[in-house]
Amino acid sequence: MDAGSDRTCRQCLAGDFNLCPAAEQTIVGRPGGFAERVRCQALWAIPLPDELDQSKAGPLFCGGITVFNPIVQFDVKPTDRVGVVGIGGLGHLALQFLNKWGCEVVAFTSSDSKKKEAMDLGARRVVNSRDDKQVAAIRGSLDFIISTVNVSLPWQAYLDSLAPKGRLHFVGAVTEPVPVPVFSLLMGQKSVSGSPLGSPATIIKMLDFCGRHGVAAVTEMFPMSRVNEALAHLESGKARYRIVLENDIK
Questions:
Q1: CATH of the domain spanning 61-194
Q2: Residue 165: what are its φ and ψ, rounded to 5°?
Q3: Tens-place pLDDT, residues 58-78
Q4: Torsion over CA: 69, 73, 144, 184 (sign)
Q5: Among candidate residues 28, 3, 29, the one with its CA nearest the CA of residue 17
Q6: Tens-place pLDDT, residues 19-61
Q7: CATH 3.40.50.720 residue ranges in the chain?
Q8: Which backbone phi and psi does 147 adopt, to 5 degrees?
Q9: Which pLDDT score is estimated for 1?
Q10: Coil, strand, or helix at residue 83?
Q11: pTM metric for this prediction
Q12: Which of 43, 68, 102, 250 is deepest in the core (most CB within 10 A)?
């Protein structure tokens, strides 16, 4: 069966093909990155701009579109101050997108060792999320926060960091319920939301943006003959930030 969407439901007819209830995944439940071929509907077969390095383009179709989609969906403006929670596979791309978008970007990380790297990727300021004083110093100042982590955090502190009408948006799959006191939303007219990958139209827009502004995933290259080593490197949490396998097997 082709990967794709049914193209007839209300979501597809509205252009939100990525929200199709009958969508067939490209990776989940299939051989994924180890497949020799991928079969999909033409709608989802999106050509790469000439400006993009093919060896770094793969992560854009997962981590890249995951963090780019909410920028478009929620009309994030170049004048906005935006926080990024988590500097990993998703977060390192979010920093680049938002910086090139024109935003003032604040990176939240639990590790001071990532401060220089976050600044190099586009953050104007780096806040240690374990330092209450640093978190308190930006209270009420952010228009949008995008959370890329999959662990529970003191979410009230992030809600408090939002300016009136600010939004805390999740793209990281936190496995535990997120406590959100309604009163903390009411008084500042704040919002909490989440989103999956983007539609083909948004993916095309993202790829053009990457080609124009030089946004690319930070990757490490491993030959296919060392795939077990690559997987161990990934599982240890040492990958920065995506691993690309090169076929050296004949």
A1: 3.40.50.720
A2: 70, 15
A3: 999 999 999 999 999 999 999
A4: negative
A5: 3
A6: 999 998 887 777 776 777 888 899 999 999 999 998 899 999 9
A7: 61-194
A8: -100, 120
A9: 63
A10: strand
A11: 0.94
A12: 68
